Amino acid sequence: MDMEESLMQKMEDFSFTATEIDVIFDREEPEIDGVIEGSHYLIGKLISRRTIDGGALCCTFWAIWVTQKVDEVLDIGDHYFRIKFTTAQIMTTILNRSPWTFKGDLFALAPFVAEKGLEEYDFDSMAIWIRIFNLPLGSMTKTMGLTLGNGIGTTIAVDMRVVGGTMARSFEFEWLLI
Fold first, then answer.
1. What InterPro entries does UniProt report for this protein, alphabetically (predicted)?
2. CA pair distance 165, 178, nearest whole angstrom
3. pTM here?
4. What topology is assigned to 34-114 in CATH?
5. Which residues, in sequence order, are CB contacts of 63 under 8 Å at separation 6+?
6. Where are the domains of the chain?
């Protein structure tokens, strides 16, 4: 048996005892390297097939969200990031303004849950706004917005607001990406 096979065999036999499992999962106050659930953390994932510079993403969002509002933007690997905010209100505001983009790729955010592994976070669906320009004026209706939106995903809302007494030159609707 070579070293690789030996290591694989040891990994297959590896398991936690009941006591170790209790220590890991039955804590009164979940804490991971100083990260406490209930603190103001989000998990972010850059939805991209490209290789990214995690440091550049961290610096970019640190600057966008202003350093007084963000305590930490940490690259935790494989396009995932952990972000700590100074207050729950600021964290909620940033989350509600999602999704964000970085170099044209979506940067999705989700509330931090101490018991979840990275692969357990669900970034498969998110609400985003779509703007369609240059539609014929007769097509700028709520019905057309619903038709176009439902052709892409599940439409949540169609914005038909009149701005300053005139109809906008673009057509906006929010849809759920599935």
1. At4g02000-like
2. 35
3. 0.61
4. Alpha-Beta Plaits (3.30.70)
5. none
6. 34-114, 126-177
